[in-house]
Amino acid sequence: MKELSKENLTAVIKTRLQNSHKGTFGRSVLIGGNDSYGGAIIMSAEACVKAGCGLTSVSTAEKNHTALHARLPEAMVLDWTLTQEFNDLIDTADVILIGPGLGLDTHSQHILDNVLQQQKSSQWLVIDGSAITLFAQNHYSLNYPKQVVFTPHQMEWERLSGLKIIDQTVENNQLWQMKLGATIVLKSHRTEIYTANAKYKNPLGSPAMATGGMGDTLAGMIASFLAQFKEKEAAVCAAVYLHSFIGEELGKENYVVLPTEISKNLPYYMKRFEQLHNKTEEKR
Amino acid sequence: MKELSKENLTAVIKTRLQNSHKGTFGRSVLIGGNDSYGGAIIMSAEACVKAGCGLTSVSTAEKNHTALHARLPEAMVLDWTLTQEFNDLIDTADVILIGPGLGLDTHSQHILDNVLQQQKSSQWLVIDGSAITLFAQNHYSLNYPKQVVFTPHQMEWERLSGLKIIDQTVENNQLWQMKLGATIVLKSHRTEIYTANAKYKNPLGSPAMATGGMGDTLAGMIASFLAQFKEKEAAVCAAVYLHSFIGEELGKENYVVLPTEISKNLPYYMKRFEQLHNKTEEKR
Amino acid sequence: MKELSKENLTAVIKTRLQNSHKGTFGRSVLIGGNDSYGGAIIMSAEACVKAGCGLTSVSTAEKNHTALHARLPEAMVLDWTLTQEFNDLIDTADVILIGPGLGLDTHSQHILDNVLQQQKSSQWLVIDGSAITLFAQNHYSLNYPKQVVFTPHQMEWERLSGLKIIDQTVENNQLWQMKLGATIVLKSHRTEIYTANAKYKNPLGSPAMATGGMGDTLAGMIASFLAQFKEKEAAVCAAVYLHSFIGEELGKENYVVLPTEISKNLPYYMKRFEQLHNKTEEKR
Amino acid sequence: MKELSKENLTAVIKTRLQNSHKGTFGRSVLIGGNDSYGGAIIMSAEACVKAGCGLTSVSTAEKNHTALHARLPEAMVLDWTLTQEFNDLIDTADVILIGPGLGLDTHSQHILDNVLQQQKSSQWLVIDGSAITLFAQNHYSLNYPKQVVFTPHQMEWERLSGLKIIDQTVENNQLWQMKLGATIVLKSHRTEIYTANAKYKNPLGSPAMATGGMGDTLAGMIASFLAQFKEKEAAVCAAVYLHSFIGEELGKENYVVLPTEISKNLPYYMKRFEQLHNKTEEKR
């Protein structure tokens, strides 16, 4: 397995071209947040906006709209009933993230069905949280080439692959990556990434980050990086590494690192790696 | 074209007279924010208040009132149904901003009609975002002298003027400025301003600012400066330059600059330019 | 007229006794905030809590409860319909503030009637903003000794006293103070205070503070100081001076000072004056 | 009585194991916040999350959900009607906190009944605020071994034990601790803790902390520490001491310390004590 390092960040986070506009950095649509788990999709949205996605829209239960706007007016909102407007919104996306706080009821199921059917070949789809469980329960398959990233923790990976935690070896995981035909971000205190081409291991991650919402934040970052950067495999690796890197940095001064603190610090740390990239280039 | 510079700020942002009260710095009424785009008008309001407008009122869909108050209790709110209260509010304004998150439906159209009919010769009107698109769709004309500022990005300017982006040359833009009889703030990574008297080019602007909501923030700043400063053309130029100046400054430490961060830093940077103005005066 | 100075602060803001509890620092009930002006009562509440009042309750239109809690969970809320609960709440207060964002309609009038009738001789009542206008319109009189503070700006003082702004001389104001039998905080860029015993002039105040909500913040501070400090006249003077003092300090680095920034800085500046008081005592 | 000291913190707040996940640090369910006192349960939740509990859920009146999410998306919410979902949530908890802002009406009573009946022997239950008053009014008894912590102030302790404040001597308090069979955190400016094994006195506490919401914050910290740390008596002692320690530290620069400021500083101060622990270990 390749070990992720700072080079995974400097390879991706480059100086933006002067002649850019918000469209240059992609459109993400984030779907999740039922009546109890609205905070999850809010945390994903904060990560997505602050990691640099050009335009972020959130489709969530109406109950969550005010809290989202109160924290993050930069995001647009849409109720998550399956209207024409919902379908139109999905259609505009470069990246769709589904799952944070989505829940497991029938409505959530319908939304996932709908998104899986609608996904266009140009779009990336990140499937997180309860959407992974729903995907597993319904024995979906991605039976044609799709640009999909799953972000399971070990229990969700068991549901998706059938592999018990003890059987989640690198070889077995890689086998299931091939069967699914998707990128797998297998979250643990040392997250692993499985793609069609390679396997990566994240050497970072602090126990200060072991608190609810960290996964929602990571999912938002992955969506944002996919929307914004061209090399998609590299973008996923960079998001995973940066999430842990910031967590470790903040964990030096804090016993607990809140997910929203990771997001708050994204613009600063991304700049540091842009500058590091430029310094490295200069030396060459 | 004249290139904007720090002198455009020091010429406008002067030390306030001791004997001032909130009325001295004008009343702005901001109209926008439908059920999906409430964040837009919230961002405009934050910019307007923090740039120093004396009194800021927001007319928006009721859904957005709580989020606005949670972020900015300094602003007053009114539902945007076309009641007598709405008309009374419009009547008190020194500056009206319409458009951020307004949307394109029939209700939005009615509000724009209403505002265009009601505008008094003493009032300034800033037309932004979807209000520009509605204005273009309805083939409105400003067939008598009106104090209007349009703030289109290049696509909106195409809709308004009919000029395709490739044809948006300085000469053509100036021609259309005359036809419309309004001030044009043509937004791009190097924003241009066209007035009856002059043409300006903004040399600043960072790609870190290429994120949703930047335009809403600029529109709020323009409204605030028009409400507060006497020389209106100079006020528009100062708002445009300051917006980019802060964006560039924050962009030195941040890969992405959120629109709300620009607003948060307005009081500090405006003070710096007031002080710079005073130092320049002393030397004379 | 006596000129307010730092001594008005060191005389009031003393080191709290170790054996204190929240009841030691008084209960304030703040009433205001209709459907359009909810921000006003939120700003008063922030000032009241952060200036040290032990317990702060807010009675406001239900529409404003969520925004208040989102900013300030330290305050309790109650709908402002005239229920038994409302009367019970009023009954517990050491200080009642009525007026910020109250509005001028019939319901607002009923609430003011109710409060004026219910006020007990042990309670202080601060009448601010639209409650002053309502008081004037209804030709109320305080025909028995009441502990009342009015906080009019010059236009409201004209309504209350009948004195046109040009006639608002020290002598005339003092005369009307006696007729009303209340403390008058006459707000302008150099606020004056009239009591039965004395006249004070505030030498401070920055034009950076000339923005909507400053008066709501001052009213909240006055309520908090009355609830917390024993010498009531001294408490009012201290609140007025501190409000401007903080405004001037923040105005050195900011072109505009938001009302909520004044409140945010209250705990820090109050500590500074407590420390100054103790140093002065040591020297004696 | 043993006097609490920094050693009570270094004994508890140790370096987290690398191989941790959010489940490692426990699940808390917080119940409270009626239509008027929503702020109380919000403050408890902030303390619980920021003190390091792995997963925090809040069951409160629906009215409070948006404000909670706007401040703290890390928490999950559930309406507090007595549904199957409510019972399922309770069932998952390691620690249940009931009381902050709960109120005293029939519904609040039903919830308390329900929680007392449902509590499993593996779960800890913290009874605070109005839940203490309800417990006293209903002459409940804990007639079998339960893991309960009561957090009364002196008036609530009078209601619970029948001991008038003047009779709340160490001996009498200890006697009542035994009768109740629960841990008692008796709050005052020098809080005392009574357990089956020992008596503790807190030497810290600043009058700057004498403001509404401090108790709600302490209750949230106690729940968080019980969820997260193994030694339960030590966890309660650590929470009490840390709450006052942070209050005293912030009180050096602030005349008033808001409860939410205590919570905001938890991650930083907990890290300091982790580091202090490690230094002490090294010396051995």
UniProtKB/TrEMBL annotation, chains A, B, C, D:
Cofactor list: Mg(2+)
Alphabetized GO MF terms: ADP-dependent NAD(P)H-hydrate dehydratase activity; ATP binding; NAD(P)HX epimerase activity
Residues in YjeF C-terminal domain copies: 5-273
Major enzyme class: lyase
Reaction equation(s) it catalyzes: (6S)-NADPHX + ADP = AMP + phosphate + NADPH + H(+); (6S)-NADHX + ADP = AMP + phosphate + NADH + H(+)
Keywords in alphabetical order: ATP-binding, Lyase, NAD, NADP, Nucleotide-binding
Matching SUPFAM superfamilies: Ribokinase-like
Pfam families: Carb_kinase
Ligand binding ((6S)-NADPHX): 40, 101, 153, 216
EC number: 4.2.1.136
Binding site for AMP: 187-191, 215
InterPro entries assigned: Carbohydrate_kinase_pred_CS, CARKD, Ribokinase-like
Alphabetical GO biological process terms: metabolite repair; nicotinamide nucleotide metabolic process
PANTHER family documented for this protein: ATP-DEPENDENT (S)-NAD(P)H-HYDRATE DEHYDRATASE (PTHR12592:SF0), ATP-DEPENDENT (S)-NAD(P)H-HYDRATE DEHYDRATASE FAMILY MEMBER (PTHR12592)
Subunit field text: Homotetramer.
Function as written in the Swiss-Prot or TrEMBL entry: Catalyzes the dehydration of the S-form of NAD(P)HX at the expense of ADP, which is converted to AMP. Together with NAD(P)HX epimerase, which catalyzes the epimerization of the S- and R-forms, the enzyme allows the repair of both epimers of NAD(P)HX, a damaged form of NAD(P)H that is a result of enzymatic or heat-dependent hydration.
Family affiliation: Belongs to the NnrD/CARKD family.
Descriptive protein name: ADP-dependent (S)-NAD(P)H-hydrate dehydratase
Organism of derivation: Enterococcus haemoperoxidus ATCC BAA-382
